[in-house]
Specification:
The structure is a homotetramer.
Chain A: E1 5-10, H1 14-26, E2 30-36, H2 40-50, E3 54-56, E4 70-73, H3 80-89, E5 93-96, H4 104-117, E6 121-123, H5 131-141, E7 148-156, H6 171-174, H7 178-194, E8 199-207, H8 224-227, E9 241-248, E10 252-258, E11 267-274, E12 278-282, E13 287-293, E14 296-303, H9 309-323, H10 331-350, E15 354-355
Parallel strand pairs in A: 1-2, 1-4, 2-3, 4-5, 5-6, 7-10
Antiparallel strand pairs in A: 7-11, 8-9, 8-15, 9-10, 11-12, 12-13, 13-14
Chain lengths: 356, 356, 356, 356
């Protein structure tokens, strides 16, 4: 890309360091001009670590900055909408981490603002840029699976609560637990592969059965997330397990997810059931393609070149700011996913199926 | 058991030969007095094979017979209600194969007749007599799992349609496919283990996406069921895949099932998610118990003596005819399972959640 | 098949009992009328075991028998030509075990006799009736592999000499060792799959480096073949290892084989290298299909119904005796394989490539 | 070594950076005085990277240089002979990368020049300095394998073409493909282990069946070689697969190799079949020793200290320049390997076995 991009990073936590910053720095003509975090040390450290940009502690100081072309919003979920909207109103294009917001209403506000301000607003649903995901989408689009009539996905781990007692596990900051933080990736990539069919209804149940008892939470060590846990005074008031069934005008989608469950088998996959063939995708891994050839049931494992989905996500976002065409991860494409998340939480609260 | 039991076998097909007859013959004081089948050769062959009983070709000839104490109904599903009801009205106790009937209405008729005639009517939900199932029920009843809040079960195989084009795959004779024939076992044992909680609603979708195309059905050989298939003129108008979500006053239950799917991984298990511990039962096999001990996440595999669940089922039924106390597999205990089956099929037809 | 077949079994050893007799008995309208063996006990035992037929000790007594339609020749290799030719001259159709004969000259004599007498003469190259082999042939014929330019096959085992010191390991009775007894299957099925391309040359070397020292032959027990070994006075004067390269007008074929080698890794497979795709067949097992789809290198494992290749071989042979059309295993189809066997042995003797 | 060595590196590509330069720098008394490359940036970068030497862009400028004792020739294959010969005529000892040259005629010229000028000329057949290779050679030399009568080697990968469309895949620059670039290592180390037996004949076939179609070449990413590929305008006119059979006065040697094949199983090993024992060497890895002990078939995996074969190669070369005794990798030892390479290519062209 020949255009020069000046980037402000808002929120210098894990996702900024692992996904956004290193991938911006891979791209020619990109300069990070600001690192912003409400914890001043974090902003300062980022400037020092990457040897570029200025440290800022309140994003509002940047709303009038001229040396910013695009903004990456890497804050807690509760700040996603306000930060994104403020920057769009200030004329900047925004890449906002997933989930776009805690509630559907906020997501729709963000979408409305993007339209009014004619700004690009992409959401960090990085799997839309995953190689395997796109290979599967190709197979579906080419008709290799026939009609895809059902998708089942499991995102279940025995123990994987991130930052117990921190911003991930408080409803006021995160909006929810395993569904909105982890399930969002699975459901979004399913909708993407299916071509975003019209949604009909959602029925589900979200549980908080293990995480609430923080002081007695038992886990098998080594997980980054527990290192930041506050076992004394932390709050866990979000879902640590969830189940649901989605109806669309095309396939049904059913799922089970858990950040914590008393089943030791980890299952993290998506099954696409088609009339002609099927696919099982190991989340963030390879897939198997089950098809029929010459009267034989075939199980095929592909090999192919892979690209870093974070880098592709950022390249695609930057390109969209040049072409002024929303990309595949734009807020418009994310709204259906947000509807499902909201629908499942509503269905769980009301203990009945809800219309989407 | 000191009482002598004279047994009539109605229907001399696979289940009679594999489950009922050999297990009656294991029990002291049991005599099979009649083998009945509308296909005369089958009745004749049974008499010859087992060296006992008389061959009959119309069960109605037996309604007045005095040398019958109990009746095993092993016919196609569509004959279950009429045969069971006729024999109960004729004063006989009845063990009827699963599913009790094609529809909930018929099941309720059977229940009503049992009550009116004060006859024992047991259903062949043999897993209620399985050793592992009862070990799990003990763990739940003893509180070892804490609150069981969700159960997920998979009864999914790539290719396992029984008798393609025969009585199993026609709605008029079977009432349904993978849900009513296979899922019935899984759902019934789940309700049994959970203590038959009050049911609230069912949401599901049943599919016929692969089996209908009988002439092009591809399978990997060696399955008994395909040997009897009618690839030319057979009919397949039942569900070959199903998904659903059940709400109860206790746990939710979600499931995926398939007689045929284009995913080669077979999954046949039930996960009980409890607040203190969990269990995964391999269907008709052993289970794993996931619990916490001394701050450690433990995965435990039990070993124990097992009994043949068909033999236990028949012993329990015969005992109930002596004690005049309905057993754990009596029609009253099966009604909730029948409600779920009907609920899922209704929900699928109406494409919305239904109240149970 | 509606025609009735009366069968004489000539030679009642291992292959007769494991392959020929049980498969004839599976087929409707087949009656075994004679069991012949020069060891009288063997013929007598076969009559007793199968409850049919008469025992005969000299096959020449049967040349005038009227109650024989077809003959299975299951003798040692050295008797294959004379027995087959005598029966063809006596008007019988013949299924002769592989290899057809010890030398190409004898094979050509057999072919000549079959033509002169207008008799069916099939050779027991059973892999031509294997399901996986035919699936591969279909893939090749359909062009799925593109041009098959090279085939490599390994039939190598650390220790698998059959009947050390018996009829398998003496050149006078067997004609050769691992190449003519085991390699014949691999090479014949390769030619079959390739469509029997015109042969150009053979270069190879056959070794007798381990078996000759019978008294010090070390093996890991449990192999049937060693049970019949004569470690005292037996003779081993055939090849226990072989390597070769065949040129045809199509693909080249290279191979390594061993009945005995001081390498513990067993390798028994055939690799078909095509320009568009490739196949690795595990001998007598399944195969993998390596192809390209949507820019991905795919490794596919098929599942399919399999049939017993011995039964198919015999059914095909019997059908050919009705239709009077030579089948895919007829002597004409075997001659190219015989040319390769002879060519490799000649090349080994002369230590140079020979023209075929 | 007490003598001081001044080294000129001719050609600053991959092999210079990965093998030659770092290993010269490990050795006491070595100074690299010149880095030469016809691409000036490469020479300049080498000087900068290693902080020594002068950059030169035409090797002929160095023919009269006094501050050079030895020369490492790391150019494309086509420049190996002329550069090596020019430096030998200029009085320098030369270590030339493998293969020594594109054709046997050129190799013989190099040998002749070395003799005439009494210069040391070593070839970079580094496996002659590998620890496992020498352990195997010791076993053979000690008689532990008995007579080694056959060697089979596979150097087969699904996709491993180096630098598609670059100097490796053009016949004018490389002389050939997988045989001359990769097979050379395997065949040379086999001859080394066998004690360089007298060669009799070669029969083989070299194929170009996949690489030629560069624009549609599918590979699974991450291979360095493809990063430099020219998918647009590159040329691939060398062998991507090869098979062959070599006769010697001792063992036969057969092989299959592929830079690209539609078989996903990678096989890179050498099997030495001996009358008393055998060895399988995983190329550049460990080996298994299969022998007989106390009547048992033993599979033994050795453990031992390993040395870097590039460092040993260079130390040995430098030592030879002091002792004036050609080392085990001298041009005289490489000539038999070159004869095989030429023989296989000739045999492939003529489609018949050729005398060596």
């Amino acid at each position: 890309m020949s255009k020069k991009f000046r980037v402000a990073i808002i929120g210098c936590g894990t996702i900024a360091h692992s996904a956004h910053i290193p991938n911006y720095l891979k791209i020619e003509n990109v300069e990070i001009t600001y690192f912003c975090d409400i914890i001043p040390e974090r902003a300062d450290e980022a400037v020092k670590k990457y040897g570029c940009g200025k440290a800022v502690y309140d994003y509002r100081e940047l709303l009038g900055a001229e040396d910013i072309d695009v903004v990456s919003v890497c804050t807690h979920n509760d700040y996603h909408p306000v930060v994104s909207i403020d920057f769009m109103r200030a004329g900047k294009d925004v890449l906002c981490e997933k989930p776009a917001a805690k509630t559907l209403a906020e997501v729709l506000d963000m979408q409305k603002t993007a339209r009014e301000t004619r700004r690009m607003l992409s959401i960090g649903v990085c799997n839309r840029f995953g190689t395997a995901v796109n290979k599967i989408k190709d197979l579906i689009d080419n008709g290799d699976l026939g009609e895809v009539y059902h998708v089942y996905t499991a995102f279940r781990r025995q123990r994987s609560i991130p930052g117990l007692g921190g911003c991930f596990t408080r409803k006021d900051s995160a909006g929810g637990g395993v569904l909105i933080d982890t399930g969002v990736h699975y459901l979004d990539l399913i909708l993407y592969c299916l071509g975003e069919p019209k949604l009909l209804s959602a029925s589900g149940k979200a549980y908080n059965k293990i995480g609430w008892d923080i002081q007695n939470y038992v886990y098998s060590g080594g997980m980054w997330a527990e290192h930041t846990a506050d076992f004394e005074n932390g709050v866990f008031d979000v879902d640590d397990a969830v189940t649901g069934l989605i109806r669309t005008e095309g396939a049904t989608i059913s799922f089970n997810g858990a950040w914590a469950q008393n089943i030791a088998e980890s299952e993290n996959y998506i099954d696409f059931l088609g009339t002609k063939a099927g696919v099982r995708l190991a989340y963030c891994g390879n897939f198997k393609f089950y098809h029929i050839k010459n009267g034989m049931l075939m199980t095929s494992e592909p090999a192919y070149n892979t690209k870093d989905f974070y880098e592709e996500e950022i390249r695609s976002f930057l390109e969209s700011t040049v072409t002024r065409e929303p990309n595949r991860a734009s807020i418009d494409h994310f709204v259906p996913t947000a509807k499902i998340l909201q629908g499942i939480y509503d269905s769980s609260d009301q203990n009945r199926e809800v219309t989407l």
